[in-house]
Amino acid sequence: MKWLINIIGWIGALEVLVAYGLNSYQKIKSDSVYFLLLNLTGGFLLIVYTLYLDAIASATVNIVWVIIAVIALLRKFKR
Question: Does the pTM exceed 0.85?
Fold first, then answer.
């Protein structure tokens, strides 16, 4: 089970880093669906990982990260 949680954590971290890198090098915009979905899924996977490790501070940051992504996606689809 621990190896699966570690894989989930690594995938989440990779997704968030890819989103940040692509945005930093202006390959995607911060309001693009791709950017927001990478942050949403990456943040969710990191929540699973950090809760498993009982790292509440990190889990809290990722919960807020996911909430921001969800709100941004909802606003984007309302337009």
Answer: yes
Range of the domain at 61: 2-78
Q: How many domains does the chain divide into? A: 1
Q: What is the DSSP letter of 53?
A: T
**What confidence category does residue 58 fall into, taking pLDDT thresholds of 50, 70 and 90?**
very high
Q: 36: which DSSP letter?
A: H
CB 46 within 8 A of CB 14: no
Taking the C-alpha atoms of residue 24 and residue 62, their distance in angstroms, rounded to an integer, is 20
Distance between CA 77 and CA 59 in Å, rounded?
A: 27
